[in-house]
Amino acid sequence: MSRTHGNRVFRWGLLTIPPALFCGGLLLFTQLVFLQASFHADEGLGVMTSRFTWANYLEVWHDPDYLESLGLTLRLAGVVVGATLIMAWPAAYLLSRSSPRVAMVVVAAIIAASFVTLPIKTLGMVILFSADGPLMRLLQDLHLISARYRFVGSFFAVAVGYAHLAISFMVTMLFSVFQSIPRRLEEAAAIHGATRLRVLWRVVLPLSLPGTVSATLVLFNLLTGAFVSAALLGGGKVLTVSLLIQRSLILFNEYGMAATLAVVLLLIVLLVNIASVLLVARLTPASQVIA
Amino acid sequence: MARVALAGISKQYRGHRALLPTDLDIADGEFLTLLGPSGCGKTTMLRIIAGFVEPSAGRVMFNGEDVTATPPNRRAIGMVFQDYALFPHLTIAENIAFGLRERAWSAASIRTRVAELLDLIQLQGIAKRLPAELSGGQQQRVAFARAIAHPPRVLLMDEPLGALDLKLRETMQFELRRLQRALGITTIYVTHDQTEAMNLSDRIAVMQGGRIHQIGAPRDIYDHPTSRFVAGFVGQINLLPGQPPHDAPGAVRAIRPQHLSIANGTGVPAGHHALPARVLTQFFTGNLLHIQLAAQDSVLTVETRPAEHHVTDGDDVIVHWDPGHCLILQA
Question: What ipTM was predicted for this assembly?
């Protein structure tokens, strides 16, 4: 009985092979191209030596500009994900505990807003925040900022752009995390003596931890590779790794160096993810990880 | 331990009246069951007592103290939920100790109390396990231990046996009754299962359509139901054909299935009322036999011992009863 059941599951499981090949194949192939290119030195004008070399990696390691850019990228993603988490966590919790109609309208609005493509949204922000834009004018008139202050081109501007992208993702992801926590558990905690804050601390927070960590990682990964906000709101002054890669490719035709930067960024992000997953697994009882 | 009093409690949801104005007094240490079909208002009433639902009008009193505006966590209540609602991330010991930690008990007294409760529910040695590793019956006991740990003034139970299979449900009924008696906690129990209500309760409040139809001891409710609804919900009932009693217009005569007898060739005892009937079908349940009859334009069910009557489907028989067993029921 159980064998036929197992076989049937296996045959249906075959259907997952085409999408797995498509996604996995494309991912692996492109990463292999980068990996291979990163071991060849650039000779200028897009030509690479055929000899295997660690030179690109040594250059990244020894050049303070590259290291600074890597640090900036991770710092930017970390700060924005942290700030977004602090803002989105209570909002998503309240949304998941409000009436289904309210929740549906708000989530629909968030999703509808995400249909506006990122460059359009970012350009809107550039206009809003530019030195002669309406917001900066108002702040100048109120003598809150000096006429020489430039918002666009600052770390903060890029962070605001990133956060704008991140917060709607974070709210919708956390919303479904909280929805999976039965309200009964909160009632059980309350009736047995827990205040609202204690219910959050002893029940909601621990039960939402795995989901919160994965939402945070998804956004961290997204933001370390984010390009549009950094390019437009950074005004060429906030050089993240994604911008360096673009410059190496388009401006300097250094394909080897571009590939090296991509591989280094990928490895660092991969390490951050593995470390986080291991940490959460240690904090969470085994049964919950399985569930 | 506490007396519980509801004074003019009602609840409306956007025009829908979930609970009509209701008064209810529950004595200290009493086991009261709210019995009724789904949507009758029993759960709303329980949730108002718990403090999860704010009543549209009326007051909730514990020992004469008005707790209507008191949040659930300060009402000193214990509650067993239908799906147990054990915290999946906490061990059994931590689940049972939940309310004790919220009340800032010392670690040592928590340990003693948890061990005591695990003894009480006869589940020693599972303190370090997680709820998911326990069977339904075991989870139910843990939920009970968590609810009585602090100990509460009032114990609320919302269909706590609903998720268990029949055999286990019967065992747990006697277990619950034993524990409640031993602890003497005022208990309010919600169920739609009349057998459960009869087995467990000191008093039963039969509810329908947002109001209490009748309240009384199980025996009282069974022997002297006042309405058709109560008679039909608590046990089976036959509506007898014929004129309504002249002193109670709109009422009907009814009788329990065990008070009907079949005269199959034998005589009808003196003083009994009788009607000609035809056997429709029979159900054999082991110790009892249920025989369905068509009499005039009614269908009557006779409950009898299998040895007492031998009839075949389609037989013409005489059904008779002692009029002293007749009930007069309001429609």
Answer: 0.86
